[in-house]
Design goal:
The chain folds into two domains: 13-80, 2-Layer Sandwich (hypothetical protein PF0899 fold); 113-210, Tumour Suppressor Smad4 (Sandwich). The chain contains three helices and 16 strands. The protein has helices spanning 24-30, 34-52, 113-116; strands at residues 6-8, 11-13, 17-22, 61-66, 75-80, 118-124, 130-133, 138-142, 149-150, 161-166, 169-174, 181-183, 186-188, 190-192, 198-201, 204-210. Strands 7-6-16-15-12-13 form a six-stranded antiparallel sheet. Strands 9-8-10-11-14 form a five-stranded mixed sheet.
């Protein structure tokens, strides 16, 4: 990321697409959990970009590729800046995605395999944790009975927050709740979610995960 960055009026622009070329034998060792690994690596890119306040033109994507020209144990990484359609960007974007932006588009995508394996583990104080499998493009959370995930917590608003599937990953959005929301101990309005992230609404904790 750091060796491929460029500079513009919008700040430091870094690649958002990474292809990791591996020897076929090494590639095969990751095949059983390749999708989950690619998701985790992409989330790591997003986290680093947010921390360093780098600019991304679209959500990060990481792909593993078998390549016979690579020696066993070696990895060759090809990094580039591409837009949502996969087109390479040769100039600075007019509407970049900055490190503070989480919801990258209003278009709802069909759920990829990683999204269909996503789940929430909801634990309200004094109650046993309950698991909810996701997969839909929009998951609403709150006290009202018309939510997808109903939380019996007086500190939670009737329509407190939602998870929105975009570009193959879920993002968290607070819906202007009375008491606010936290993710991993930080107050947020919108944030991208990755496996192991913990949402707190009222006295309820909601862990986001992906089945292996």
């Amino acid at each position: 990321m750091d060796t491929n960055k460029s500079f513009g009026d919008v700040g430091v622009i870094v690649p958002n697409q990474y292809v990791l070329h591996l020897h076929p034998t090494d590639f095969a060792s990751f095949e059983s959990y390749r999708a989950a690994l690619e998701d985790d690596l992409a989330h790591g890119v997003l986290t680093r970009a947010r921390h360093e306040r780098y600019t991304l033109v679209a959500r990060p994507r990481v792909h593993l590729n078998a390549d016979r020209s690579i020696r066993r144990g070696d990895i060759r990484i090809a990094a580039r800046v591409v837009d949502d359609a996969g087109e390479r960007r040769h100039r600075e974007p007019s509407a970049p995605v900055t490190s503070d932006t989480v919801v990258l588009s209003t278009r709802e995508d069909a759920a990829p395999d990683s999204a269909r394996r996503a789940y929430l583990l909801v634990a309200t104080q004094g109650q046993d944790p309950v698991q909810f499998d996701l997969g839909g493009p929009l998951i609403t959370i709150g006290r009202a009975s018309d939510n997808d995930v109903i939380v019996d917590d007086p500190m939670v608003s009737r329509h407190h927050c939602q998870l929105k599937l975009q570009h193959g990953a879920y993002g968290f959005v607070d819906l202007g709740s009375r008491n606010g929301s936290m993710v991993n101990g930080q107050a947020v309005q919108e944030v991208a979610l990755g496996p192991g992230d913990v949402i707190q609404v009222g006295s309820t904790t909601i862990e986001f995960g992906i089945h292996g």
